[in-house]
Specification:
eight-stranded mixed beta sheet; 2 domains; Rossmann fold; 15 helices; six-stranded parallel beta sheet; alpha/beta; 14 strands
Length: 447
């Protein structure tokens, strides 16, 4: 038999950002993808808190347990019993080979396709929406009112019923609250993905009281990192057993080396210079000033080094003042905002991320896709992405001396071999590619 599983992604909007990129990558990878599915279609349980099943996903193979930080510092649902995922570890239920000519799955019991749509609770939709709409993706757009908008719940519920939605995939906390209430006591399954947390993290007693109840009506909660999962448990009172980790995934960058060489020539960077760099908005949370202080220490030992900082924002004045105070302007380049920064990223020999807080940085993943060793702070998902001393270095948060030491070790290592970069690329391919992410979401959607 043939059927389509209609998955509606519920989010704030589709402007350019990490969450929006993940949604786009899921849709690009899975919309209209055929797959084999042994269980009956009736395995999509009616959306009732007593009838759903939560199973563990297989992304744990990518988790980094207790990473060694080079600093000397220590660094389901409540009512359900988890059952093994029937798609994990059973070769008879694996995703089939897609026929190269017809695009149809081979040797299947019955074929099923994903149909994707997007519901935005705010406007404007944003540039990613236009691209997806041009590819035939249906959008629903609402304008959330201030306060708790009960009318929005009615609008979402109507959209779910009218469009025969099988699964709503809610991205971020607020879309989840509206989505799960709208879908209550319908046949529609609910998935909630938390993409990151504010810094400093916090919650309210009301959320801690209501979230366990909302979780009863949610078929699966996922987080983009172990750190995000822990935050959901600590600050949102969502049971740890209800949350699985599915890492963000991106399409690896493709680079034209001729263009990269021309850019280096245009920037007049000496051929004997090691290029460090970062791409981030100029915001206090990115802690550029700590990076600049660390870089000034690096220059004392490695004067043939250039730092490229791509981005712009309200923190620019403070960043420029810090550069002048440290007297390192000859070795630092502020490029401003770049619409397509990939050639700048390709120029960098080492990628730096000095943030006070991170979920899973998409630019960090892009750097890894280009085989860049990375030096990052030990916050959020960073120590799960970068394997300390293997694909780069993870250093204590807001510590310029340790960050500089990590940079120096990376520079010295890259002078000897490309080992750090190779491990970085291999880890990306295994855990953080779009294909790796979509494999996990595909299993989640069809279980």
């Amino acid at each position: 038999m043939n059927k389509q599983t209609h998955i509606m992604h519920i989010t704030f909007d589709m402007r350019i950002g990490g969450t929006e990129m993940v949604i786009k990558n899921i849709i690009d990878g899975l919309h209209n993808l055929s797959y084999s599915h042994s269980p009956s279609p009736s395995s999509l349980n009616a959306h009732n808190p007593s009838s759903s099943n939560v199973s563990s996903l297989s992304s744990s193979k990518c988790l980094v347990e207790d990473p060694t930080i080079d600093s000397g510092q220590d660094n389901a649902r409540m009512t359900n019993v988890r059952t093994p995922n029937p798609l994990v570890g059973d070769p008879t239920l694996s995703i089939p080979t897609i026929h190269t000519e017809t695009g149809a799955p081979e040797s299947i019991e019955w074929a099923e396709k994903f149909r994707m749509s997007v519901l935005c609770i705010e406007s404007p939709l944003g540039p990613f929406a236009e691209e997806l709409q041009n590819n035939g993706i249906e959008f629903h757009q609402f304008n959330r009112k201030q306060g708790f908008d009960t009318n929005l719940i009615k609008q979402i519920r109507k959209a779910i019923k009218t469009n025969n939605v099988d699964i709503i995939h809610c991205h971020q906390y607020t879309p989840w609250v509206y989505g799960v209430i709208a879908a209550a006591f319908t046949k529609t399954k609910v998935i909630f993905t938390e993409h990151g947390r504010f810094y400093p993290d916090s919650s309210t007693w009301k959320r801690k009281l209501i979230n366990p109840i909302l979780n009863l009506f949610t078929d699966q909660v996922t987080a983009i990192s172990k750190a995000t999962k822990q935050a959901l448990t600590e600050f949102e009172n969502i049971p740890e057993k209800s949350i699985d980790v599915i890492y963000n995934g991106i399409t690896p960058l493709k680079i034209n080396q001729v263009e990269v060489d021309k850019l280096r020539e245009k920037l007049a960077i000496p051929k004997n210079h090691t290029i460090l760099g970062t791409i981030a908005r100029f915001d206090p949370i990115k802690n550029h000033t700590m990076m600049l202080n660390a870089f000034s220490l690096v220059l004392k030992q490695q004067p043939n080094t250039t730092l490229i900082i791509v981005g712009d924002g309200d923190e620019r004045t403070n960043i420029e003042a810090c550069i002048n105070k440290l007297n390192i302007s000859e070795n630092v380049m502020l490029t401003g905002y770049q619409i397509q920064p990939k050639n700048y990223l390709a120029l960098m020999n080492i990628y730096l991320l000095s943030s006070f807080s991170e979920g899973t940085s998409m630019t960090l993943l892009e750097a890894m896709s280009l085989s860049k060793p990375c030096v990052v702070t030990n916050v959020g998902g960073n120590p799960e992405v970068v394997m300390n001393s293997k694909s780069g270095f993870v250093t204590p948060n807001d510590n310029a001396i340790k960050f500089a030491q990590g940079i120096m070790k990376t520079i010295k290592s890259t002078m000897i071999s490309e080992g750090l970069g190779r491990v970085s690329k291999n880890r990306f391919d295994k855990c953080f590619s779009e294909a790796a992410m979509n494999e996990q979401y595909q299993k989640l959607y069809i279980k």
